Amino acid sequence: MAIDITNLKSKLTAKIAALDGTQTLKDLLFLKKACDGTSVDISAIDTRIQVFENGLTSSSTDKDLLFVNKASIESSAVGGGLSIPVNGVIPMQNGDNLITLPTGEVLLKSGITNTEVDKYPDAIRVAGVTPPRNLSGLTSNSAFCMANDGTHIYVCDYIGSKIRKYTLGGAPVATYPLTHGTGPIGITWDGTHFWVVLHSAKGVFKYTSDFTYANVSFSVSAQASNYRGLAWGGGHLWLLGEDKRVYKYNSSGTYQNFNFSVTQISTPQGIAYDESNDRIALCNSGTNAIHSWNPLNGTYHGAVAYFSGATNLRGVTILNNNYYVLQISTPVLMYTNKELESVGQPLEKLAYDIFPIYVRIK
């Protein structure tokens, strides 16, 4: 004879409704176990457990670590919705795929397994980006690095020794020849002026918005002899060298005696400064991922985006909360939203493994 557990379910539901943040992790785990097989909604328990997981530090006790691990392994999907298959797309417009913790942190449902976990454990996979926009006037050998001024994209034409201006849709607007050297291989905008790295001159040159020379330049040959990009952020210029190091300069061109290694990636090409997070972002041309570092101390923060449909990325710039990247096998422009806000770009998260069902977006 089947046992009627209606009263049990009622008691469990009441206990879950009474959760107020004072419960221990052990209490939550026991309460969760008591709900096994009852069909009681345990989403509130999982939310509380996630708060404990978020608070883990190097000084957390072994017991805390054990209980969090146990709770995660036995976790079920929080907040409803369907599990997403391997390599599936998580529609950001679907509220079932998001959950907001009491801390205000937003989690994205994963359910994805075995998707390049070792390569990009913290990355957002770009499963669908904007349709590639062809960039006329460029070849695969001439397109190097890019910048934006808030309304347009600017790309270095290395072979033509020009800067090419495009709309955000990829339509050509203007071309600006450079006369202070050849081989532009890095460009950035500081809000008022452009700065361009010229390979032949081994220096950085300052220009107005229409690329009139502003009579300011400085040599970077003492730090690096070959270059892969230039960024402005935090009141400083950041030069990416072919030696896989990033060098810091002030606006007067004085080297700040600070640099850090980016050897965590195989082929760094293109650099941008993410003002919203105070991070340096670089393209890894070999894997078509974007990785980030803390510019204050050079700490590596892993991959933050992966363009699964792209080949040979050679430039990145950040505009309106989007990563814009330059693909050079056939010169095209594409972009995706870099945060949780939906702009019609379906995103999926590379999961650590099967659990947790919900994962943090960094």
TrEMBL record:
Highest taxon, organism lineage: Bacteria
Name of protein: Uncharacterized protein
InterPro entries: 6-blade_b-propeller_TolB-like (IPR011042)
SUPFAM superfamilies with a match to the protein in the record: YWTD domain (SSF63825)
